[in-house]
Amino acid sequence: MYTQRYRSLAVIFIFATLCASGTNGCKSKETKVHYRTLEGTITSVDPASRIVSMNAYIEKLGQSKLIPGKLADDAEIYIDGKLADITQLREGDQISVDGYQKGEDIIARRVQVIRAGGKRVTIKPQTTTTAPTDQE
């Protein structure tokens, strides 16, 4: 009788330990995100908070909408095909943004600006991938 109880407790303990250590036996803490591409015009840039707002036409709504988005820490910014940083973005720039929604926030992973005579960087956008969680 005691042996059966100890075995049951041992199994529960091993399972709990495996879950806590993050092995594949338990649910992953990572979530799938769907990347989208939006195109529009920059209306404001705040380098300190890394927030860029743009006016973009939303097809589902049939109208333009002001959309603020936060640049991810590892976001790539390209101006005319060359790597740039957030301080080089200007109001009125035409942009293409690849990003995803996290809660109420839009997170931008790649921003492309095409100015007169420039070229676009062609990188195949991911449609679904795994995003890091805040718990890492």
Description of the molecule:
The chain has about 140 residues and is mainly beta. The chain has two domains: about 1-25; about 30-130, Copper binding periplasmic protein CusF (OB fold (Dihydrolipoamide Acetyltransferase, E2P), Beta Barrel). The relative contact order is 0.20. The strands form two sheets. Strands 2-3-4-7-6 form a five-stranded mixed β-barrel. The protein has one helix and eight strands; from the N terminus they run αββββββββ. The model is unreliable at about 125-130 and about 130-135 (pLDDT under 50).
Helix/strand layout:
Elements: H1 2-21, E1 31-34, E2 36-46, E3 51-58, E4 63-79, E5 82-84, E6 94-102, E7 105-113, E8 128-131
Parallel strand pairs: 4-7
Antiparallel strand pairs: 1-8, 2-3, 2-6, 3-4, 4-5, 6-7
**What do the pLDDT scores average to?**
78
What does the oligomeric state look like here? single chain
- How much helix, percentage-wise, in residues? 10-25%
Q: What are the low-pLDDT stretches, counting only 5+ consecutive residues below 50?
A: 124-130, 132-136
CATH superfamily of the largest domain: Copper binding periplasmic protein CusF
Q: What is the SS-derived class? A: mainly beta
CATH architecture designation of the largest domain = Beta Barrel
CATH level 3 topology of the largest domain: OB fold (Dihydrolipoamide Acetyltransferase, E2P)
